[in-house]
Amino acid sequence: MLSLYLAALESDGDKKQFRELYRRYHRVMERTALAVLHDPHDAEEAVQEAFLRVIENFSRIDEIPCKDLGGWLVIIVRNEAITILRRRRCHLPLEEGWADFAGQSRDLPAYSSMVQLFARLPDTYRAALEMKLVLGWSTAEIARRLGLTESAVNTRLSRGRALLRKIFEEEGIEP
């Protein structure tokens, strides 16, 4: 698969840089996608799609500070995994466990409405909240992945939750 990605790049320097990027981050991207999708085949698809996005934007990769590159790649693969998850959910019926949950949560808006509300958050807050709430990462892990201090991550989480509460209030939803 690596050779297909390399064929899309023009210069030898870009190919060398991509090889290093692939070698260094492929496994962590795979683990991230697997944490979201819980299916190795779908996780690999998400990683492949993420690397295609990287190649599409490869001319701008040098603009990303080295310390932020890993976090950037993790966010790309996470977004691709969520896209696959959404496609999968649109095509599969609810499992029994979900049906029970839906019966207990009649006061909550539909999942897609919640996702739309969550999507209204600025990227900086949404990324930290998704890593915490969706992926279940610790504050230390989020800080490492985003190249931030734990204090900065806690601030983003706190501000993100406050903005989410405000969005809920604007929509007339009790959190």
UniProtKB/TrEMBL annotation:
<dbReference type="InterPro" id="IPR014284">
    <property type="entry name" value="RNA_pol_sigma-70_dom"/>
</dbReference>
<dbReference type="InterPro" id="IPR013324">
    <property type="entry name" value="RNA_pol_sigma_r3/r4-like"/>
</dbReference>
<dbReference type="InterPro" id="IPR013249">
    <property type="entry name" value="RNA_pol_sigma70_r4_t2"/>
</dbReference>
<dbReference type="GO" id="GO:0016987">
    <property type="term" value="F:sigma factor activity"/>
</dbReference>
<keyword id="KW-0804">Transcription</keyword>
<dbReference type="GO" id="GO:0006352">
    <property type="term" value="P:DNA-templated transcription initiation"/>
</dbReference>
<feature type="domain" description="RNA polymerase sigma-70 region 2">
    <location>
        <begin position="21"/>
        <end position="89"/>
    </location>
</feature>
<dbReference type="Pfam" id="PF08281">
    <property type="entry name" value="Sigma70_r4_2"/>
</dbReference>
<keyword id="KW-0805">Transcription regulation</keyword>
<protein>
    <submittedName>
        <fullName>RNA polymerase sigma factor</fullName>
    </submittedName>
</protein>
<dbReference type="InterPro" id="IPR007627">
    <property type="entry name" value="RNA_pol_sigma70_r2"/>
</dbReference>
<dbReference type="InterPro" id="IPR013325">
    <property type="entry name" value="RNA_pol_sigma_r2"/>
</dbReference>
<dbReference type="InterPro" id="IPR039425">
    <property type="entry name" value="RNA_pol_sigma-70-like"/>
</dbReference>
<dbReference type="InterPro" id="IPR036388">
    <property type="entry name" value="WH-like_DNA-bd_sf"/>
</dbReference>
<comment type="similarity">
    <text>Belongs to the sigma-70 factor family. ECF subfamily.</text>
</comment>
<keyword id="KW-0731">Sigma factor</keyword>
<dbReference type="Pfam" id="PF04542">
    <property type="entry name" value="Sigma70_r2"/>
</dbReference>
<feature type="domain" description="RNA polymerase sigma factor 70 region 4 type 2">
    <location>
        <begin position="115"/>
        <end position="164"/>
    </location>
</feature>
<dbReference type="GO" id="GO:0003677">
    <property type="term" value="F:DNA binding"/>
</dbReference>
